[in-house]
């Protein structure tokens, strides 16, 4: 019975059916299925398939956004219970589009994929300067910094952030990952980041690998 509800939750996340996901998650809670299991085997399992399909170009941006919205309706029901039970997120990531850059569609997708994978996401928004990235590490305990850039004129700002993290003596406390259309792995190597990812779903794989989670 519980396995069947969880499977249905995952399937309806993949299909992006928000009202049905909400109904099923409520049913799972009422049936006393542990919330962590609803999260891992229902919502996250569904988003993992969405991420995989996106990587293979079987899904495009609209399908991912619709699936993420469905996942979020379920999350709204689970979040207060998870918090009350002290269930910890897998890890914490602060994500932002770099200084001077206002493109946020890709960055938002990256945030959604990380939320879907069980991370605590600190969304720093767009036009994020070094100080804000630093503060996410120092004051909010981010274990990873994720930087996005869409402009050739702003991608250089990623290096100033990496340098600022080094200057603050925090480089060994945080992993740095980067992405965005004009970026490459060699650029990531050049600026001293820990890794580059070409798409939102692979960014989660990269972070998992870097943190060993
Ligand atoms: Co802009 N824009 N734009 N724009 N815009 C581009 C990027 C451009 C390629 C268009 C072009 O000329 N052909 C060009 C950049 C040229 C260059 O630098 N080489 C450009 C320009 C020049 C500009 C302005 C300067 C235009 C002007 O005003 N003269 C201006 C800059 C404003 C600023 O930022 N300061 C500008 C403005 C805008 C809009 C506001 C109109 C709008 C943004 C709206 C918004 O984001 N809310 C916009 C848009 C929509 C685009 C295009 C059309 C689409 C970008 C997008 O959202 N793609 C773009 C042209 C294009 O790509 N066809 C263009 C979809 C998105 C899902 O992909 O962001 O690449 P993307 O994210 C991917 C991956 O890159 C990766 O995952 C995502 C999905 O898997 N990824 C990460 C992204 N971040 C990651 C981080 C990670 C890992 C993976 O780890 C942390």
Account of the protein in words:
This protein has 2 domains: 2-84, Orthogonal Bundle (Methyltransferase, Methionine Synthase (B12-binding Domains), Chain A, domain 1), CATH 1.10.1240.10; 92-211, Rossmann fold, CATH 3.40.50. 45% of the residues are buried. By secondary structure, the chain is of the alpha/beta class. It is globular and about 55 Å long. Strands 2-1-3-4-5 form a 5-stranded parallel sheet, sandwiched between helices. Helix 7 links the parallel strand 3 (144-148) and strand 4 (175-179). Helix 4 crosses helix 5 (105-116). The chain contains 9 helices and 5 strands, in the order ααααβαβαβαβαβα. CO-5-methoxybenzimidazolylcobamide (B1M) is lined by residues 61, 95, 100-107, 109-110, 146-148, 150-153, 177-182, 197, 199-200, 203.
Tell me the CATH topology of the largest domain. Rossmann fold
The hetero compounds bound to this protein are: CO-5-methoxybenzimidazolylcobamide
Q: What count of helical segments does DSSP give?
A: 9
How far apart are the termini?
A: 30 Å
Share of residues in helices:
55-70%
- Biggest pleated-sheet summary: 5 strands, parallel
Shape verdict: globular
Number of discrete domains: 2
Q: Supply the CATH architecture of the largest domain.
A: 3-Layer(aba) Sandwich
Query: What string gives the helices and strands in order?
Result: HHHHEHEHEHEHEH
List the helices and strands and how they pair.
Elements: H1 2-15, H2 18-30, H3 35-55, H4 61-84, E1 92-98, H5 105-116, E2 120-128, H6 130-138, E3 144-148, H7 157-167, E4 175-179, H8 185-191, E5 195-196, H9 200-211
Parallel strand pairs: 1-2, 1-3, 3-4, 4-5
CO-5-methoxybenzimidazolylcobamide binds at residues 61, 95, 100-107, 109-110, 146-148, 150-153, 177-182, 197, 199-200, 203.
